[in-house]
Amino acid sequence: xxxxxxxxxxxxxxxxxxxxxxxxxxxxxxxxxxxxxxxxxxxxxxxxxxxxxxxxxxxxxxxxxxxxxxxxxxxxxxxxxxxxxxxxxxxxxxxxxxxxxxxxxxxxxxxxxxxxxxxxxxxxxxxxxxxxxxxxxxxxxxxxxxxxxxxxxxxxxxxxxxxxxxxxxxxxxxxxxxxxxxxxxxxxxxxxxxxxxxxxxxxxxxxxxxxxxxxxxxxxxxxxxxxxxxxxxxxxxxxxxxxxxxxxxxxxxxxxxxxxxxxxxxxxxxxxxxxxxxxxxxxxxxxxxxxxxxxxxxxxxxxxxxxxxxxxxxxxxxxxxxxxxxxxxxxxxxxxxxxxxx
Amino acid sequence: xxxxxxxxxxxxxxxxxxxxxxxxxxxxxxxxxxxxxxxxxxxxxxxxxxxxxxxxxxxxxxxxxxxxxxxxxxxxxxxxxxxxxxxxxxxxxxxxxxxxxxxxxxxxxxxxxxxxxxxxxxxxxxxxxxxxxxxxxxxxxxxxxxxxxxxxxxxxxxxxxxxxxxxxxxxxxxxxxxxxxxxxxxxxxxxxxxxxxxxxxxxxxxxxxxxxxxxxxxxxxxxxxxxxxxxxxxxxxxxxxxxxxxxxxxxxxxxxxxxxxxxxxxxxxxxxxxxxxxxxxxxxxxxxxxxxxxxxxxxxxxxxxxxxxxxxxxxxxxxxxxxxxxxxxx
Lengths: 342, 330
Prior knowledge:
The complex is a heterodimer. By secondary structure, chain A is mainly alpha-helical.
């Protein structure tokens, strides 16, 4: 009995309830919502679609979680998404043989390496110059889209390259490739931070950078690592988005993805004040956001109302998780318990 | 002896380390950039080019003023761009339905101020980070635009068109639009409020340290909510000025304008951590962005994306500068 009443206090209780409620709402409207069928050895179904379309947001949110855990924030991920897509597509489009695997691998490698440089730049500003993360990454957020447009020369670059198409729209082991990539990155992040001391160190930097440095934690290095990782995740997401539409659009690729990612992290129960994080929470948060978009289509909400609907759900989840309401609920529960005792 | 040397040395440093140093740097940079433009292009250093800086950026000046209030308390308002779009949509729809202009403007200002009030309440009483709360407001305002209409609505109301076309000659070769006067009034009011009123002092005090402000008995909750109302109100005014400028309402307009406003405030020397900055600095920041845009349009073969790169680099310079100045103060 006690366990059930304690459930609402669990960190991931409200996010999970929201996700389940959204999924049930979908199933109630569209009866075949949960069915997954196999076609040509590939899995198809609404749930798979949610996972596939949510993969870029999940990747970006994954990097963002670790950044936020160090009490930082990375606003530049949308720009990094645009840059990596632009870079890869330009290289592939300019090469003599766009369809060859070698060209695609080279393009992907260049895009990923460049993202490491961008991440290191953010890390430099935050860790070495000590600039507030929100401002430091604002620079790349503003300039980054300009850089992406410089790479594509302001054009939308369309490419036809079968190996590149695989990243965003292909299948591996019967699953969409983007799910596999996002899953592998998630597993790597989870293993590295939860099976080694890295997660603990990240949290200690988030709680108190000075104290952790005095305790012998290399907080500079840790901060550097999380920004580079965030940029890398964003670059992979950028490749996915560019590959899915087989084009690089410097203007609109990854537009507002930083907002979606930050929302996913916050909905997942990671505090923006840093110091504690939940990768599983981020996973749930990213899927809530993607399911929300899908719900809008299945329930048949007019596209014009989509954004209002999304905003209201976000506000509701944030208010439910707000310290004030949590406190009130705890207070009410304790008073009713006291009343029962008397 | 040593004390005399050190004080005189400190006095020399004080000129650079004074309260106004970041604003002075912006002013010098503005003059330098303008001089570079004048030396490169014929017709750049004309009165009308300067006047157009104000005409083309009147709405951004108003937006930056509202943003300055929020940032001075250590907050941030990401919703301003969407709120501008929402204001243009409301104005265009009501004007199309034959509402009198005064009523249209009243509805716009009341709506945007109310939205600001709600955001402020959520931020202060529910303790949700300004970043997240204004992000949700940004989605909400943009969503409401779509609900009103997905298409662009043009404004044919005679009063609005007259406001768009009227040019007021100040002296020969220097004409401004009514929007500039509105922007000037907003700036003056903001300046007086920030520097000569109790509200202004409380705003600075909250930015300097919310806890200390509370312990000093200052009305922290009221002021914290009020800055978001001011920002909402300014966004509404900016939205109305924007309709004078474009004579239409469109739900996809002003995307990313919040970044321009934040950039102008930062370049104007206001600390994003709050507690330090001047509204006149923000005006200089807007003008600097405007001059850069003018140079890029005069250059002709330079594409618009260079604006973003230049603005990003400027942000970097000013942020590093702020960092150095605050580090020295400590």
